[in-house]
Amino acid sequence: MPLRKIALLVNPNSRGVTRPAIEATAAFLAEQIETSLIWTTGPGDATIQAARLGVDPDTLVTACGGDGTVNEVLNGLPPQGVLGLLPAGTANVIARELGIPLTLREAAKTLLTGVVRPFDTGRWNDRRFFMVAGCEFDAHVAASVPRLPKQWLGQYAYHLESLRRYPFYQPPAIRVEIDGKETVVGAFVLIANLRRYGGGLFFASGARPDDGLLDLVAFRKLSPPFVLKGLLGAWTRRGVGTDVAHRRRGREFVLRAPRPIRAQLDGEVLAPVSEAHVTVEPASLRMVAP
After folding, report:
1. Most buried residue among 5, 47, 135, 224 by CB atoms closer than 10 A?
2. Average pLDDT score, the chain
3. In the chain, what are the domains?
4. What are phi and psi of 92, to 5 degrees?
5. Is the overall model pTM greater than 0.90, yes or no?
6. Residues 17-74: pLDDT tens digits?
């Protein structure tokens, strides 16, 4: 890795973060390269810090936390900035997809020996994402999972909250226009840049973060047979079948619904909007990976 400095932006609330482990990792890195350790102070602080640190093209701005922490750093990183990752979250989907080790020490070695690679990102209105934009049901779930169960149970806290909310949830009819040519209607919509979602579930089995496209998975219904069949396809890594969901690939999507729709980007929940424009930004992120 040709960069000369590493700045670790640590989310103290991430499930896998402990002060002794983080300080030991920072000390290990400091033996090889100039390293600074910054503990974020609350939501949005990682974005502010990334914007400040990323103006120096010789500094590797490293997110230490979960996928949501990566999203915060991504949304502050300027075009010349370079992103690193020390996975310490609940599901660590981004690390799993890119082959970044899940232990702090081994991931730190990747920061030192990996290469800077270009990756696509997505944009939902004015906010970027790397993994997925989930529209409606999963955003409601992500917004309502309490912090302590997430710390104790990890990704299973989301599964339990999904079971709790599902019987009472009424999905909207979400109209999705694809590249200005075709419109489909779904009850639950994922627009993916990576294959995995929710840990080890492969909803968009063909998605790649370097092909200049985003993958749409729009569930036709959220009735139990459709949900169960879709989950089975995701769990077996085949992806969600076209009998369960509309599957498309594209560069631009416009989402509309009869009521304001809520979304989560890489696990970060946004305020409801009446219309969303989603686009791919090819090779817009430089990131250290194996």
Report:
1. 135
2. 93
3. 5-113 (3.40.50.10330), 127-283 (2.60.200.40)
4. 55, 50
5. yes
6. 899 999 999 999 999 999 999 999 999 999 999 999 999 999 999 999 999 999 999 9
